[in-house]
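Exam revision sheet. Question 4 asks you to relate a sequence to its structure. Input first:
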Amino acid sequence: MVDFLPKVKVEVVVKDEDVERCIDAILKAAKTGKIGDGKIFVTAVEQVVRIRTGETDEEAV
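Answer key, structure tokens:
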């Protein structure tokens, strides 16, 4: 029998130098070793704009 775990979607935007540290933190917190632990996708963010201030890119993160 497979016990299904509740699903949660987490989206995080970090600087390139923080990616590995974030992956490690997510793995430490989320890994149960059971089916359904999930996946981590790492993709590039081409542009960020903070609507309220108009700040862009790293200043907006």
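Marking note for examiners. The chain has a mean pLDDT of 90.
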